[in-house]
Design a protein that fits this description.
The chain is of the alpha/beta class. 42% of the residues lie in helices and 15% in strands. It has two domains: 3-78 and 329-436, Aspartate Aminotransferase, domain 1 (Alpha-Beta Complex); 92-325, Aspartate Aminotransferase, domain 2 (3-Layer(aba) Sandwich), CATH 3.40.640.10.
C-alpha cells in the first residue's frame, strides 16, 4: 500500500470512529431501547436490513416525509421503507382507506367486495398480468411464482442473478443464504449476456425459470440493460423456461413497471410493497395459462392459501394507492424528480473529480464509491463500503436518512425543498470528506 493510501485509510478510520462516537452520544434513548430489545430479540432486531452500527436509532413518529427518533432528532426520510413507503407517513387518503376498512369489518372469513377491484387495477396496470393472486409479501409472491414455473414446466432449475434479492427466503447476495428455500439455482452475473446464454443452454433440459429484478434493488440499484432483458426473453422462449420479473420494487419506476418502460414482457410478474398502500402485501400474476393452475374450480387445482391474502385493510389501501395516489401521471412525475435528483448528485461528484457515483433509475438510486462503471452486484461489492457507512452517519447528523447501504427511494412527499436541502448536504459532505477519497 502506498503512503498516500495508508494516510487516506487512517483518516477514514479516524473519521468513522468519530462519527460513531457522535452518533452514540446524541442518541441515549435509542441506545436504551436497543439494550432493552436485545434482551428479547437477537441483537434487538427482527428485520435485519434495519440494523446498523453502533446501534439502530428508534423512530417514535412519522409525518409526510419526516421522522423523529426517541431522542427528538428529526430526519427527512429518503429511504421510504425500502420502496414500500411511497405515500409517506400516515397519508390522509391512506388513513381514510383504513377507516373505511374498519367500518366494514376485519377478518370477514369470506370473499369481499374489494379484492376484485384491486385485482382489476393491477391487471390493467402491468402489461404481463392477465390474471393475479394476492399474497402477504413480496417474498411469498416470488416463492409462488417460482413454484408456478416449476409446476408448469415440470422442471426444477432456476437461473437467477448474483446479488439478486427476492425476499428473505430467496436471496443470492454472495451466492446465496443458508435460510434460502432449497431450489436448485444457477447464478449468472447481472448484465452478462454471454454468461446467461451459456448457463441457460447448459441447463435447458431442466430450466424452469429465469428470475431477475429488472433493476437490482438490494444489489445496488443497477439497471439491467435493454439488451440483457431482451436476451433473457429470447432464452426463455428458446428453452421453454418461464421468464419472471421481480418488480416488487421496480414496478414503481414507470406507470406499468420496468416491463412497460423497456418493452420486455415477462411471463410472470411479482409485485408488493407500495401497491398495498404500505400495508403488508404481495402479488404474483401473468399469463392466464400459467395462473389457471390455481383455479379452485378445476379438479386438478393447486391450492394457494393465506389467511390475510384478501384482508380488507390491504385491499382498501391498495385501491386508494393505485387509483387515487399513484395514477400513471404521478408515476411519471415522481420518477422524473428522481432522475433530476440523481443527475444533480452526479454533477456534484463530477465537478469535484471524485471517485463516486449514484446509480439507479427514476425514484430509486444508490451511492457507490468508485468511478468504475458498475454492471452487477459483484462490482458494487468491490467498491469502498466504509465510505458508505461514513456517508450514512454524517447525513444523519445533517438530518437526512438514507439506507446504510447507500440506497434512496423517494416518496411522493419528498418535494423540491427536501431535494435541494439534500443536494446541499451531500455537497458539504463531499467537500469535507474529499481527502479520504482522493490520492
Amino acid at each position: 500500500m502506498s503512503t498516500a493510501n495508508a494516510i487516506r485509510n487512517a483518516d477514514l478510520e479516524g473519521a468513522l470512529a468519530e462519527a460513531r462516537e457522535t452518533y452514540t452520544r446524541r442518541r441515549p434513548e435509542s441506545l436504551a431501547r436497543h439494550v432493552e430489545a436485545a434482551a428479547v430479540m437477537p441483537g434487538g432486531n427482527t428485520r435485519s436490513v434495519l440494523y446498523h452500527g453502533p446501534f439502530p436509532f428508534a423512530v417514535v413518529h412519522g409525518e409526510g416525509c419526516r421522522i423523529r427518533d426517541a431522542d427528538g432528532l428529526e430526519y427527512v426520510n429518503l429511504i421510504g421503507e425500502y420502496t414500500a413507503g411511497l405515500f409517506g407517513h400516515s397519508h390522509p387518503a391512506i388513513r381514510a382507506a383504513i377507516s373505511r376498512a374498519l367500518d366494514t369489518g376485519l377478518n370477514l372469513t369470506a370473499h369481499n367486495l374489494l379484492e376484485a377491484k384491486l385485482a382489476r387495477l393491477v391487471c390493467e396496470r402491468f402489461p404481463s398480468v392477465e390474471s393475479v393472486r394476492f399474497t402477504n409479501s413480496g417474498t411469498e409472491a416470488n416463492l409462488l411464482a417460482v413454484a408456478t414455473a416449476k409446476i408448469a414446466t415440470g422442471r426444477g432449475t432456476i437461473l437467477a442473478m448474483q446479488g439478486g434479492y427476492h425476499g428473505g427466503l430467496m436471496t443470492f447476495a454472495g451466492g446465496g443464504n443458508p435460510v434460502n428455500v432449497p431450489h436448485k439455482a444457477v447464478l449468472c452475473e447481472f448484465n452478462d449476456i454471454a454468461g446467461a446464454e451459456r448457463l441457460a443452454r447448459e441447463n435447458a433440459a431442466d430450466l424452469a425459470a429465469i428470475l431477475l429484478e429488472p433493476m437490482l434493488g438490494g444489489g445496488g440499484c443497477i439497471p439491467a440493460t435493454d439488451a440483457f432483458l431482451a436476451a433473457l426473453r429470447r432464452l426463455a422462449d428458446e428453452t421453454g423456461a418461464v421468464l419472471i420479473f421481480d418488480e416488487v420494487m421496480t414496478s414503481r419506476l414507470s406507470p406499468g413497471g420496468l416491463q412497460q418502460a423497456t418493452g420486455v414482457i415477462p411471463d410472470l410478474t411479482t409485485l408488493g410493497k407500495y401497491i398495498g398502500g404500505g400495508m403488508s402485501f404481495g402479488a404474483f400474476g401473468g399469463k392466464q395459462a400459467l395462473m389457471a393452475i390455481f383455479d379452485p374450480r378445476r379438479p386438478d387445482a393447486i391450492p394457494h392459501a393465506g389467511t390475510f391474502n384478501n384482508n380488507t385493510l390491504t385491499m382498501s389501501c391498495g385501491i386508494t394507492a393505485l387509483s387515487e395516489l399513484y395514477p400513471p401521471e404521478k408515476a411519471v412525475e415522481l420518477n422524473a424528480r428522481g432522475d433530476a435528483l440523481r443527475e444533480r448528485l452526479n454533477a456534484a461528484i463530477r465537478s469535484r473529480g471524485l471517485p463516486a457515483q449514484v446509480t439507479g433509475r427514476g425514484s430509486m438510486m444508490a451511492f457507490h464509491f468508485t468511478d468504475q462503471p458498475l454492471r452487477n452486484a459483484t462490482e458494487v461489492g468491490a467498491a469502498n463500503q466504509k465510505l458508505k457507512e461514513l456517508l450514512f452517519l454524517d447525513l444523519l447528523e445533517r438530518g437526512y436518512y438514507i439506507a446504510r447501504r447507500g440506497m434512496i427511494a423517494l416518496s411522493l412527499m419528498v418535494g423540491d425543498a427536501e431535494c435541494d436541502g439534500f443536494v446541499g448536504a451531500v455537497e458539504e459532505w463531499l467537500d469535507l470528506r474529499a481527502p479520504m477519497m482522493t490520492a
